[in-house]
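Supplementary Methods. Inverse-folding protocol.

Structures were first reduced to a C-alpha coordinate string of length 431. This string, shown here, constituted the complete conditioning input.
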Protein backbone atom coordinates (compact mmCIF):
# COMPACT_ATOMS: atom_id res chain seq x y z
CA UNK A 1 0.00 0.00 0.00
CA UNK A 2 1.40 3.37 -1.05
CA UNK A 3 1.57 6.42 1.20
CA UNK A 4 1.72 10.17 0.60
CA UNK A 5 5.51 10.23 0.48
CA UNK A 6 5.41 7.97 -2.58
CA UNK A 7 3.02 10.41 -4.39
CA UNK A 8 4.70 13.78 -3.90
CA UNK A 9 3.33 15.39 -7.06
CA UNK A 10 -0.31 14.47 -6.59
CA UNK A 11 -2.56 17.22 -5.25
CA UNK A 12 -4.93 16.54 -2.37
CA UNK A 13 -8.44 15.69 -3.50
CA UNK A 14 -11.30 18.04 -2.73
CA UNK A 15 -15.03 18.32 -3.35
CA UNK A 16 -16.94 21.14 -4.96
CA UNK A 17 -19.92 22.39 -2.97
CA UNK A 18 -22.19 24.58 -5.12
CA UNK A 19 -23.09 28.00 -3.73
CA UNK A 20 -25.68 30.50 -4.98
CA UNK A 21 -24.55 33.81 -6.39
CA UNK A 22 -25.80 35.78 -3.40
CA UNK A 23 -26.62 35.20 0.26
CA UNK A 24 -28.40 37.43 2.83
CA UNK A 25 -26.66 40.79 2.98
CA UNK A 26 -25.34 40.53 -0.59
CA UNK A 27 -26.71 42.35 -3.61
CA UNK A 28 -28.97 40.10 -5.72
CA UNK A 29 -27.00 38.65 -8.61
CA UNK A 30 -28.74 37.32 -11.71
CA UNK A 31 -25.87 38.03 -14.07
CA UNK A 32 -25.78 34.32 -14.86
CA UNK A 33 -29.31 34.40 -16.33
CA UNK A 34 -29.06 34.70 -20.11
CA UNK A 35 -32.27 36.10 -21.55
CA UNK A 36 -32.43 35.73 -25.33
CA UNK A 37 -34.66 37.96 -27.40
CA UNK A 38 -38.32 36.99 -27.46
CA UNK A 39 -39.20 35.14 -30.64
CA UNK A 40 -35.62 34.08 -31.35
CA UNK A 41 -36.08 30.36 -30.59
CA UNK A 42 -37.05 28.25 -33.62
CA UNK A 43 -40.18 26.12 -33.45
CA UNK A 44 -39.53 22.59 -34.77
CA UNK A 45 -42.26 20.56 -36.38
CA UNK A 46 -44.25 18.53 -33.87
CA UNK A 47 -43.16 15.33 -35.61
CA UNK A 48 -39.45 16.18 -35.63
CA UNK A 49 -36.82 13.79 -34.23
CA UNK A 50 -35.99 14.41 -30.58
CA UNK A 51 -32.46 15.51 -31.51
CA UNK A 52 -33.84 18.51 -33.41
CA UNK A 53 -35.14 19.95 -30.14
CA UNK A 54 -31.90 19.56 -28.22
CA UNK A 55 -30.56 23.06 -29.03
CA UNK A 56 -33.75 24.34 -27.38
CA UNK A 57 -32.72 22.64 -24.14
CA UNK A 58 -30.08 25.29 -23.53
CA UNK A 59 -31.84 28.35 -24.96
CA UNK A 60 -35.17 29.80 -23.83
CA UNK A 61 -38.52 29.77 -25.61
CA UNK A 62 -40.04 33.24 -25.21
CA UNK A 63 -43.09 34.78 -26.88
CA UNK A 64 -43.78 38.03 -24.99
CA UNK A 65 -41.13 40.70 -25.39
CA UNK A 66 -40.31 43.49 -22.94
CA UNK A 67 -43.11 45.69 -24.33
CA UNK A 68 -45.70 42.93 -24.10
CA UNK A 69 -45.85 42.06 -27.81
CA UNK A 70 -46.25 38.43 -28.92
CA UNK A 71 -43.50 37.68 -31.42
CA UNK A 72 -41.83 34.76 -33.15
CA UNK A 73 -42.81 31.29 -34.35
CA UNK A 74 -43.99 30.12 -30.94
CA UNK A 75 -46.77 32.74 -30.76
CA UNK A 76 -49.93 30.62 -30.24
CA UNK A 77 -52.16 33.47 -31.49
CA UNK A 78 -54.76 33.01 -28.78
CA UNK A 79 -58.06 34.83 -28.88
CA UNK A 80 -58.66 37.63 -26.40
CA UNK A 81 -61.29 35.66 -24.48
CA UNK A 82 -58.85 32.90 -23.59
CA UNK A 83 -56.15 35.44 -22.71
CA UNK A 84 -58.53 37.21 -20.33
CA UNK A 85 -59.51 33.88 -18.75
CA UNK A 86 -55.85 33.02 -18.16
CA UNK A 87 -55.29 36.46 -16.61
CA UNK A 88 -58.27 36.03 -14.32
CA UNK A 89 -57.32 32.49 -13.31
CA UNK A 90 -53.79 33.57 -12.39
CA UNK A 91 -55.19 36.50 -10.43
CA UNK A 92 -57.60 34.21 -8.57
CA UNK A 93 -54.70 31.94 -7.61
CA UNK A 94 -52.74 34.89 -6.23
CA UNK A 95 -55.70 36.26 -4.27
CA UNK A 96 -56.49 32.77 -2.98
CA UNK A 97 -52.88 32.34 -1.88
CA UNK A 98 -52.90 35.63 0.01
CA UNK A 99 -56.13 34.77 1.79
CA UNK A 100 -54.98 31.30 2.80
CA UNK A 101 -51.58 32.61 3.90
CA UNK A 102 -53.35 34.97 6.30
CA UNK A 103 -55.61 32.16 7.46
CA UNK A 104 -52.54 30.16 8.43
CA UNK A 105 -51.10 33.11 10.34
CA UNK A 106 -54.43 33.31 12.18
CA UNK A 107 -54.11 29.68 13.26
CA UNK A 108 -56.92 28.43 11.05
CA UNK A 109 -54.71 25.86 9.30
CA UNK A 110 -51.31 24.36 9.97
CA UNK A 111 -49.42 25.58 6.91
CA UNK A 112 -49.79 26.81 3.35
CA UNK A 113 -47.68 27.08 0.18
CA UNK A 114 -47.92 30.03 -2.22
CA UNK A 115 -47.23 29.96 -5.94
CA UNK A 116 -46.60 33.70 -6.35
CA UNK A 117 -44.66 34.34 -9.55
CA UNK A 118 -45.27 30.82 -10.83
CA UNK A 119 -48.97 31.06 -11.67
CA UNK A 120 -48.42 30.70 -15.43
CA UNK A 121 -46.69 27.34 -14.97
CA UNK A 122 -50.04 25.80 -14.01
CA UNK A 123 -52.69 28.11 -15.47
CA UNK A 124 -51.26 28.48 -18.97
CA UNK A 125 -50.44 24.78 -19.14
CA UNK A 126 -53.99 23.86 -18.09
CA UNK A 127 -55.34 26.08 -20.86
CA UNK A 128 -53.26 24.16 -23.40
CA UNK A 129 -54.40 20.72 -22.19
CA UNK A 130 -57.76 19.03 -22.64
CA UNK A 131 -60.00 18.89 -19.59
CA UNK A 132 -59.95 15.08 -19.79
CA UNK A 133 -56.14 14.88 -19.57
CA UNK A 134 -54.79 13.78 -16.20
CA UNK A 135 -52.51 16.09 -14.23
CA UNK A 136 -49.96 14.82 -11.72
CA UNK A 137 -48.93 17.95 -9.84
CA UNK A 138 -46.66 18.84 -7.02
CA UNK A 139 -47.81 21.21 -4.28
CA UNK A 140 -47.55 24.54 -6.13
CA UNK A 141 -49.90 23.89 -9.05
CA UNK A 142 -53.18 24.97 -7.47
CA UNK A 143 -53.70 26.92 -10.69
CA UNK A 144 -54.64 23.66 -12.43
CA UNK A 145 -57.72 23.34 -10.25
CA UNK A 146 -58.63 27.00 -10.55
CA UNK A 147 -58.28 26.87 -14.34
CA UNK A 148 -60.50 23.77 -14.51
CA UNK A 149 -63.25 25.38 -12.45
CA UNK A 150 -62.83 23.47 -9.20
CA UNK A 151 -64.76 25.29 -6.45
CA UNK A 152 -62.61 27.46 -4.19
CA UNK A 153 -64.75 26.36 -1.25
CA UNK A 154 -63.74 22.73 -1.79
CA UNK A 155 -60.05 23.73 -1.90
CA UNK A 156 -60.44 25.65 1.36
CA UNK A 157 -62.33 22.79 3.01
CA UNK A 158 -59.34 20.57 2.30
CA UNK A 159 -56.90 23.15 3.63
CA UNK A 160 -58.89 23.49 6.85
CA UNK A 161 -59.47 19.70 7.12
CA UNK A 162 -62.99 20.52 8.21
CA UNK A 163 -66.20 18.52 8.01
CA UNK A 164 -66.63 19.58 4.39
CA UNK A 165 -63.25 18.12 3.41
CA UNK A 166 -63.89 15.32 0.92
CA UNK A 167 -60.53 13.81 1.88
CA UNK A 168 -61.68 13.66 5.52
CA UNK A 169 -58.56 15.23 6.93
CA UNK A 170 -56.31 12.46 5.62
CA UNK A 171 -54.16 14.72 3.47
CA UNK A 172 -51.97 17.58 4.59
CA UNK A 173 -53.23 21.07 3.68
CA UNK A 174 -52.87 21.92 -0.04
CA UNK A 175 -52.55 18.25 -1.01
CA UNK A 176 -55.72 18.23 -3.06
CA UNK A 177 -57.21 15.36 -5.03
CA UNK A 178 -60.09 15.32 -7.49
CA UNK A 179 -60.50 12.71 -10.18
CA UNK A 180 -63.34 14.50 -12.00
CA UNK A 181 -61.09 17.51 -12.59
CA UNK A 182 -58.13 15.38 -13.66
CA UNK A 183 -56.08 16.24 -10.58
CA UNK A 184 -54.18 13.24 -9.23
CA UNK A 185 -53.64 13.05 -5.46
CA UNK A 186 -50.61 15.06 -4.33
CA UNK A 187 -48.00 13.11 -2.41
CA UNK A 188 -45.57 14.53 0.13
CA UNK A 189 -42.96 12.01 -1.06
CA UNK A 190 -40.72 13.74 -3.55
CA UNK A 191 -40.99 12.81 -7.22
CA UNK A 192 -43.47 9.93 -6.84
CA UNK A 193 -45.95 11.68 -9.11
CA UNK A 194 -43.64 11.49 -12.13
CA UNK A 195 -43.46 7.68 -12.57
CA UNK A 196 -47.16 7.62 -11.67
CA UNK A 197 -47.86 9.98 -14.56
CA UNK A 198 -45.80 7.84 -16.93
CA UNK A 199 -47.59 4.70 -15.77
CA UNK A 200 -50.99 6.32 -16.20
CA UNK A 201 -50.03 7.49 -19.69
CA UNK A 202 -48.84 4.00 -20.60
CA UNK A 203 -52.13 2.56 -19.37
CA UNK A 204 -54.06 5.10 -21.45
CA UNK A 205 -52.11 4.01 -24.53
CA UNK A 206 -52.59 0.31 -23.77
CA UNK A 207 -56.37 0.89 -23.50
CA UNK A 208 -56.40 2.76 -26.81
CA UNK A 209 -57.64 5.89 -25.05
CA UNK A 210 -56.99 9.44 -26.32
CA UNK A 211 -56.12 11.09 -22.99
CA UNK A 212 -52.57 12.10 -22.12
CA UNK A 213 -50.85 12.80 -18.81
CA UNK A 214 -48.83 15.76 -17.59
CA UNK A 215 -46.61 15.88 -14.51
CA UNK A 216 -44.91 18.68 -12.63
CA UNK A 217 -41.79 18.28 -10.52
CA UNK A 218 -39.53 20.77 -8.75
CA UNK A 219 -35.89 21.25 -9.74
CA UNK A 220 -34.67 19.76 -6.45
CA UNK A 221 -36.80 16.65 -6.83
CA UNK A 222 -35.16 15.79 -10.14
CA UNK A 223 -32.28 14.46 -8.04
CA UNK A 224 -34.57 11.63 -6.90
CA UNK A 225 -34.34 8.21 -8.49
CA UNK A 226 -38.05 8.30 -9.37
CA UNK A 227 -37.33 11.03 -11.91
CA UNK A 228 -34.72 8.85 -13.61
CA UNK A 229 -37.07 5.86 -13.70
CA UNK A 230 -39.86 7.96 -15.15
CA UNK A 231 -37.66 9.32 -17.95
CA UNK A 232 -36.43 5.84 -18.84
CA UNK A 233 -39.91 4.34 -19.05
CA UNK A 234 -41.35 7.36 -20.85
CA UNK A 235 -38.62 7.29 -23.47
CA UNK A 236 -38.47 3.55 -24.05
CA UNK A 237 -42.24 3.08 -24.36
CA UNK A 238 -43.01 6.48 -25.91
CA UNK A 239 -45.57 7.18 -23.25
CA UNK A 240 -48.00 10.03 -24.07
CA UNK A 241 -46.87 12.24 -21.21
CA UNK A 242 -45.47 15.72 -20.60
CA UNK A 243 -42.78 15.97 -17.92
CA UNK A 244 -42.58 19.52 -16.55
CA UNK A 245 -39.58 20.46 -14.43
CA UNK A 246 -40.43 23.65 -12.54
CA UNK A 247 -37.07 25.29 -12.01
CA UNK A 248 -37.96 28.04 -9.54
CA UNK A 249 -34.31 28.34 -8.39
CA UNK A 250 -34.89 27.20 -4.80
CA UNK A 251 -35.88 24.02 -2.98
CA UNK A 252 -36.64 24.52 0.71
CA UNK A 253 -33.43 26.37 1.51
CA UNK A 254 -31.02 24.93 -1.06
CA UNK A 255 -30.66 26.44 -4.49
CA UNK A 256 -30.98 24.59 -7.79
CA UNK A 257 -27.21 24.07 -8.07
CA UNK A 258 -27.44 21.33 -5.42
CA UNK A 259 -29.60 19.36 -7.88
CA UNK A 260 -27.17 19.96 -10.74
CA UNK A 261 -28.49 23.29 -11.99
CA UNK A 262 -24.99 24.76 -12.32
CA UNK A 263 -23.78 21.90 -14.52
CA UNK A 264 -26.34 22.36 -17.28
CA UNK A 265 -30.00 23.19 -17.71
CA UNK A 266 -32.67 20.86 -16.41
CA UNK A 267 -34.10 20.63 -19.92
CA UNK A 268 -30.76 19.21 -21.07
CA UNK A 269 -31.49 16.05 -19.11
CA UNK A 270 -33.83 15.16 -21.94
CA UNK A 271 -30.82 14.60 -24.19
CA UNK A 272 -29.45 11.68 -22.19
CA UNK A 273 -32.81 9.92 -22.27
CA UNK A 274 -33.43 10.51 -25.96
CA UNK A 275 -36.43 12.73 -25.22
CA UNK A 276 -37.45 15.95 -26.91
CA UNK A 277 -36.67 18.84 -24.60
CA UNK A 278 -37.77 22.47 -24.33
CA UNK A 279 -36.62 25.22 -21.98
CA UNK A 280 -39.33 27.84 -21.55
CA UNK A 281 -39.67 31.22 -19.89
CA UNK A 282 -42.02 30.13 -17.09
CA UNK A 283 -43.15 33.72 -16.47
CA UNK A 284 -44.36 34.06 -20.06
CA UNK A 285 -47.93 32.68 -20.15
CA UNK A 286 -47.95 32.52 -23.95
CA UNK A 287 -44.61 30.71 -24.00
CA UNK A 288 -45.85 28.17 -21.45
CA UNK A 289 -49.07 27.66 -23.41
CA UNK A 290 -47.23 27.22 -26.72
CA UNK A 291 -44.70 24.73 -25.37
CA UNK A 292 -47.39 22.71 -23.60
CA UNK A 293 -49.59 22.60 -26.69
CA UNK A 294 -46.61 21.50 -28.81
CA UNK A 295 -45.82 18.69 -26.38
CA UNK A 296 -49.50 17.71 -26.09
CA UNK A 297 -49.91 17.52 -29.87
CA UNK A 298 -46.80 15.37 -30.03
CA UNK A 299 -48.09 13.00 -27.34
CA UNK A 300 -51.51 12.69 -29.00
CA UNK A 301 -49.79 11.80 -32.27
CA UNK A 302 -48.13 8.78 -30.66
CA UNK A 303 -44.73 10.48 -30.87
CA UNK A 304 -44.03 10.06 -27.19
CA UNK A 305 -43.08 12.27 -24.24
CA UNK A 306 -41.55 15.72 -23.96
CA UNK A 307 -39.52 17.16 -21.09
CA UNK A 308 -40.11 20.87 -20.48
CA UNK A 309 -38.12 23.03 -18.09
CA UNK A 310 -40.26 25.89 -16.79
CA UNK A 311 -37.65 28.50 -15.95
CA UNK A 312 -39.15 30.68 -13.22
CA UNK A 313 -38.56 31.96 -9.69
CA UNK A 314 -40.12 31.28 -6.27
CA UNK A 315 -40.93 34.74 -4.94
CA UNK A 316 -42.21 33.65 -1.54
CA UNK A 317 -40.98 31.20 1.06
CA UNK A 318 -41.15 27.48 0.42
CA UNK A 319 -44.14 27.40 2.78
CA UNK A 320 -45.52 29.35 5.71
CA UNK A 321 -42.91 27.54 7.83
CA UNK A 322 -40.03 29.05 5.84
CA UNK A 323 -38.23 32.39 6.06
CA UNK A 324 -36.36 32.89 2.76
CA UNK A 325 -34.44 35.89 4.13
CA UNK A 326 -32.34 33.34 6.00
CA UNK A 327 -30.75 32.00 2.82
CA UNK A 328 -31.15 34.60 0.03
CA UNK A 329 -31.11 38.43 -0.26
CA UNK A 330 -34.36 40.04 0.80
CA UNK A 331 -34.49 42.06 -2.43
CA UNK A 332 -33.83 39.07 -4.70
CA UNK A 333 -37.47 38.35 -5.69
CA UNK A 334 -37.90 41.91 -6.98
CA UNK A 335 -34.83 41.58 -9.19
CA UNK A 336 -35.81 38.43 -11.10
CA UNK A 337 -35.12 39.44 -14.74
CA UNK A 338 -38.14 37.67 -16.29
CA UNK A 339 -40.77 39.74 -14.52
CA UNK A 340 -44.20 38.76 -13.23
CA UNK A 341 -46.53 36.53 -15.30
CA UNK A 342 -49.73 38.37 -14.35
CA UNK A 343 -48.31 41.79 -15.12
CA UNK A 344 -46.85 40.58 -18.42
CA UNK A 345 -50.13 39.10 -19.64
CA UNK A 346 -52.07 42.21 -18.57
CA UNK A 347 -49.58 44.35 -20.47
CA UNK A 348 -50.05 42.18 -23.58
CA UNK A 349 -53.84 42.54 -23.38
CA UNK A 350 -53.50 46.31 -23.03
CA UNK A 351 -51.43 46.44 -26.22
CA UNK A 352 -54.17 44.49 -27.99
CA UNK A 353 -56.76 46.99 -26.77
CA UNK A 354 -58.45 44.23 -24.75
CA UNK A 355 -57.64 45.52 -21.26
CA UNK A 356 -57.59 48.77 -19.32
CA UNK A 357 -57.55 50.18 -15.79
CA UNK A 358 -61.32 49.99 -15.41
CA UNK A 359 -61.42 46.30 -16.35
CA UNK A 360 -58.49 45.62 -14.04
CA UNK A 361 -60.17 47.31 -11.08
CA UNK A 362 -63.47 45.53 -11.74
CA UNK A 363 -61.75 42.15 -11.98
CA UNK A 364 -59.75 42.71 -8.80
CA UNK A 365 -62.89 43.68 -6.87
CA UNK A 366 -64.82 40.71 -8.23
CA UNK A 367 -62.04 38.25 -7.35
CA UNK A 368 -61.65 39.70 -3.87
CA UNK A 369 -65.37 39.29 -3.20
CA UNK A 370 -65.34 35.75 -4.64
CA UNK A 371 -62.43 34.60 -2.48
CA UNK A 372 -63.86 36.25 0.65
CA UNK A 373 -67.23 34.60 0.12
CA UNK A 374 -65.60 31.20 -0.42
CA UNK A 375 -63.59 31.57 2.76
CA UNK A 376 -66.65 32.52 4.78
CA UNK A 377 -68.55 29.51 3.46
CA UNK A 378 -65.65 27.12 4.08
CA UNK A 379 -65.08 28.34 7.62
CA UNK A 380 -68.69 27.56 8.47
CA UNK A 381 -67.58 23.92 8.14
CA UNK A 382 -64.82 24.44 10.69
CA UNK A 383 -61.13 25.33 10.86
CA UNK A 384 -58.09 23.93 12.61
CA UNK A 385 -58.57 23.79 16.37
CA UNK A 386 -55.00 24.23 17.55
CA UNK A 387 -54.01 22.56 20.80
CA UNK A 388 -57.55 21.24 21.43
CA UNK A 389 -59.52 18.10 20.77
CA UNK A 390 -62.47 19.96 19.29
CA UNK A 391 -62.10 18.34 15.90
CA UNK A 392 -64.33 19.47 13.02
CA UNK A 393 -64.06 15.91 11.64
CA UNK A 394 -65.63 12.82 13.10
CA UNK A 395 -62.53 11.26 14.63
CA UNK A 396 -63.57 7.70 13.88
CA UNK A 397 -63.18 8.41 10.18
CA UNK A 398 -59.45 7.74 10.55
CA UNK A 399 -60.35 4.05 10.87
CA UNK A 400 -62.60 3.94 7.80
CA UNK A 401 -62.09 3.18 4.10
CA UNK A 402 -59.02 0.99 4.57
CA UNK A 403 -60.45 -2.45 5.39
CA UNK A 404 -63.73 -3.94 4.19
CA UNK A 405 -64.15 -5.19 7.77
CA UNK A 406 -62.25 -3.50 10.58
CA UNK A 407 -59.77 -5.92 12.24
CA UNK A 408 -60.09 -6.65 15.96
CA UNK A 409 -56.99 -4.69 16.93
CA UNK A 410 -58.22 -1.53 15.20
CA UNK A 411 -61.67 -1.94 16.74
CA UNK A 412 -59.96 -2.01 20.14
CA UNK A 413 -57.92 1.11 19.29
CA UNK A 414 -61.04 2.91 18.11
CA UNK A 415 -62.87 2.08 21.34
CA UNK A 416 -59.90 3.20 23.46
CA UNK A 417 -59.62 6.48 21.56
CA UNK A 418 -63.31 7.28 21.93
CA UNK A 419 -63.16 6.50 25.66
CA UNK A 420 -60.12 8.76 26.14
CA UNK A 421 -61.76 11.60 24.25
CA UNK A 422 -64.97 11.23 26.22
CA UNK A 423 -62.97 11.50 29.45
CA UNK A 424 -61.09 14.58 28.26
CA UNK A 425 -64.35 16.19 27.21
CA UNK A 426 -65.62 15.93 30.74
CA UNK A 427 -67.60 12.77 30.42
CA UNK A 428 -69.43 13.89 27.30
CA UNK A 429 -69.78 11.72 24.26
CA UNK A 430 -66.80 11.81 21.90
CA UNK A 431 -67.37 12.60 18.27
Amino acid sequence: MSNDSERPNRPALSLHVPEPGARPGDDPDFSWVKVPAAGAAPRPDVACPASETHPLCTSLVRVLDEEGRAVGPWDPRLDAGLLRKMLRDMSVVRAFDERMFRAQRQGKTSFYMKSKGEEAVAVAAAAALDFEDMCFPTYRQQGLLVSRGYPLVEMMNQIYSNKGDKLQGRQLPIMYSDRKHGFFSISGNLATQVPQAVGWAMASAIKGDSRIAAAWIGDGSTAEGDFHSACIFAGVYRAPVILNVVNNQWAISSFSGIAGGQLTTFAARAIGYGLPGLRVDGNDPLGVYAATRWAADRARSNLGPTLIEMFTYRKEGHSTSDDPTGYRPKEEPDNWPLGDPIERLAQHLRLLGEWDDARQAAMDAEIDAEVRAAQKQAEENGVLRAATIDFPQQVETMFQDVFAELPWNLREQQAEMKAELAEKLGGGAAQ
